[in-house]
Design brief:
- NAD-binding protein involved in the addition of a carboxymethylaminomethyl (cmnm) group at the wobble position (U34) of certain tRNAs, forming tRNA-cmnm(5)s(2)U34.
- Its cofactor is FAD.
- This is tRNA uridine 5-carboxymethylaminomethyl modification enzyme MnmG.
- Belongs to the MnmG family.
- With 624 residues, the chain is α+β, with helices and mostly antiparallel strands.
- Helices cover 36% and strands 19% of the residues.
- Among the domains are: 128 residues, Elongation Factor Tu (Ef-tu), domain 3; 105 residues, tRNA uridine 5-carboxymethylaminomethyl modification enzyme MnmG/GidA (Arc Repressor Mutant, subunit A, Orthogonal Bundle), CATH 1.10.10.1800; 52 residues, DNA polymerase, domain 1 (Orthogonal Bundle), CATH 1.10.150.570.
- Strands 10, 11, 12, 13, 14, 15, 16, 17 and 18 form a 9-stranded antiparallel β-sheet that branches. Strands 1, 2, 6, 7, 8, 9 and 19 form a 7-stranded mixed β-sheet that branches. The chain has a 3-stranded antiparallel β-sheet with strand order 3-5-4.
Length: 624
């Protein structure tokens, strides 16, 4: 047994697991400390990964060499590609996972990762010397030393659970909260706040009248999260089910509002705007007579279901009475009620872009402690924190993703530049370069970077090179191959598109919105032959090629805009100015620039309250 490590990760949630694996795979001797080794990467809320923008983050984690996408593919019991009716920049993969198998699969990965060790305990204190973290002290009074420490404690720091007037101390239901770190860091000048999140009732499927609900089937095509070459979704696929609340449900919920911790002053912190409780919905939207609910399976064999859309901290009897007014739930039996939880977080503007704290060297924060929501946002921060914790131990430049390189880059830049006043959730609308940040090309954007860093495996890099070669070959073939009207017009008419009047290049045919490469290949034997040369991941490669061809103009235009903005990213100003002494700046600008101390002119421009005239002053003072 050793007590000396390069990196210690505190908390084995989604952020902690990715952080620990990244550091260990890069070569750092890493210790992952968790209260319960049987709850590793627990899906505390809904048993699903991905969704709008979140699915893109998971694909980016995978492209970097992380594990969330692999685990999801292996444990998925339903998969869907959301937003198919929109352009590919908006497509977002989402999967339901078997909750227990998700945990087991993650633990299997962790226990078989070289350089990675587990310790079951809770950390009560950080060992800090000369504003540098050097280790941790646990509840068992065991001290471990480390060159870097990553805090990924989720909702556990001073966690307080609410079910009506009942309050329980805990980080999750039936799990103890964590104490000590918040108080210690607060004394050292780290700004601490409180946030709130919640989770819905868990329902016994044997009591549900499924015949009164709308079934939602999954998809079973080639799409998955990981870019590695394996067959996903080995488990039996399950359906989700949809239903609605009604006026009677809302009446009962309104009667219970005086006992709601959210409305009687019991909960004082701010909850997530984009995942509100059912009681918040009926207050915010009093004119709506119904809200959609989704009943989601928790596993391949369990009868436990998660009621998405019915997050609540109302008393148990109010939750039950309201649910029984929904026809499908008239005989409802539940495993546990919904509850809210308040927890501590740290103002993320206190972080550098590598997720290291500004005040304490070698101390990193990732996940909900930075004011975010969601497994995906946490895991994305985790892999970046783990990479940079390793770099701090062994030397090298910080690993930072720009806003035009990854949704993870947008997420972290938003956090450290703008801060949060409510739990942060990623959306495609937060990314100004979302045409460049599609889910289909995360490997093209990130795998080479990660491979050069030493994290992405040789196998992953080889798959990327093979994919690039196939895509480039198909594009060149399409540019050079000529299509004659007499050989294809009858087929085009069958496909509902206008016939050719003269010969054209194949690429011009692919550009037609009614046509796809697969459909055209049925009409052109030469194209079919080229496609048949692709032995592995054929559908994935064809889709990526088609997106490149059809959206080339949009992609090139967005790259040009990103290149222009990147010039401001190259003008570094951190530490160059005493902002409070620059009287030409507005008072708000002086205060915010002094607080955040931006790395570059571009980051300064993204700080809320910084005007174009303030940026012009900084450019002049920078000699630009």
């Amino acid at each position: 047994m050793t007590f000396k490590y390069d990196v210690i990760v505190v908390g084995a949630g989604h952020a902690g697991c990715e952080a620990a694996c990244a550091a260990a795979n890069l070569g750092s001797k890493t210790l992952l400390i968790t209260m319960d080794m049987n709850k590793i990467a627990q899906m505390s809320c809904n048993p699903a990964i991905g969704g709008i923008a979140k699915g893109q983050i998971v694909r980016e984690i995978d492209a970097l060499g992380g594990n969330t996408g692999i685990v999801t593919d292996k444990t998925a019991i339903q998969f869907r590609m959301l937003n198919r009716s929109k352009g590919p920049a908006m497509w977002s993969p989402r999967a339901q996972s078997d909750r227990e198998k998700f945990i087991h699969t993650w633990r299997e990965i962790i226990e078989n990762t070289d350089n990675l060790y587990l310790w079951q305990d809770s950390v009560k204190e950080l060992v800090i010397k000369n504003n540098t973290v050097t280790g941790v002290l646990t509840n068992m009074d065991v001290q471990f030393s480390a060159k870097s420490v990553v805090i990924t404690s989720g909702t556990f720091m001073n966690g307080l659970i609410h079910i009506g007037k009942t309050q329980l101390r805990g980080g999750r239901i039936s799990e103890p909260a964590s104490y000590g770190i918040t108080e210690q860091l607060s004394e050292l000048g780290i700004t601490v706040g409180r946030m709130k999140t919640g989770t819905p009732v868990r329902i016994d499927g044997r009591s549900v009248h499924f015949e009164l609900m709308t079934e939602q089937l999954g998809e079973n095509d080639f799409h998955k999260f990981s870019y590695l070459d394996f067959e996903p979704r080995k488990l039996k696929q399950q359906s989700c089910w949809a239903t609605y609340t009604n006026k009677e449900v809302h009446r009962i919920l309104r009667q219970g509002l005086p006992d709601s911790p959210l409305f009687n002053g019991q909960i004082k912190s701010i909850g997530p705007r984009y995942c509100p409780s059912i009681e918040t919905k009926i207050v915010t939207f009093p004119d709506k007579t119904e809200h959609q609910l989704f009943l989601e399976p928790e596993g391949e064999t369990t009868r436990e279901f998660y009621l998405n859309g019915f997050s609540s901290s109302l008393p148990l009897e109010i939750q039950l009475n309201a649910l029984q007014k929904i026809p499908a739930f008239k005989d409802i039996q539940i495993y546990r009620p919904g509850y809210a939880i308040e927890y501590d977080y740290f103002d993320p503007t206190q972080l550098l872009h590598n997720l290291e704290t500004k005040k304490i060297k070698n101390l990193f924060f990732a996940g909900q402690v930075n004011g975010t929501t969601g497994y995906e946002e946490a895991a994305g921060q985790g892999i970046i924190a783990g990479i940079n914790a390793h770099i701090n131990c062994h030397g090298g430049n910080p690993f930072i993703l720009a806003r035009n390189e990854a949704y993870i880059g947008v997420l972290i830049d938003d956090l450290v530049t703008k801060g949060v006043d409510e739990p942060y959730r990623m959306f495609t609308s937060r990314a100004e370069y979302r045409i460049l940040l599609r889910q289909d090309d995360a490997d093209m954007r990130l795998t080479e970077k990660s491979y050069n860093l030493g994290l992405a495996s040789t196998q992953r890099h080889s798959l990327l090179i093979e994919k690039k070669e196939h895509i480039n070959h198909l594009i060149e073939f399409a540019k050079n191959y000529s299509v004659k009207p007499q050989y294809i017009n009858s087929g085009l008419e069958r496909l509902g598109t206008s016939p050719l009047k003269q010969g054209i290049k194949l690429i011009d045919l692919i550009l037609r919105p009614q046509l796809s490469i697969s459909k055209i290949a049925e009409l052109i034997p030469a194209l079919h032959k080229e496609i048949d040369k692709i032995k592995n991941r054929k559908d994935e490669i064809i889709e990526a090629t088609e997106i490149r061809i059809k959206y080339e103009g949009y992609i090139d235009r967005e790259k040009m805009i990103a290149d222009k903005i990147s010039r401001l990213e190259n003008i570094r100003i951190k530490g160059k100015f005493d902002y409070n002494s620059i009287k030409q700046l507005s008072t708000e600008a002086r205060q915010k620039l002094d607080k955040i101390d931006p790395e570059t002119i571009a980051q300064a421009a993204r700080i809320p309250g910084i005007s174009p005239s303030d940026i012009n002053i900084l450019l002049v003072l920078s000699g630009r």
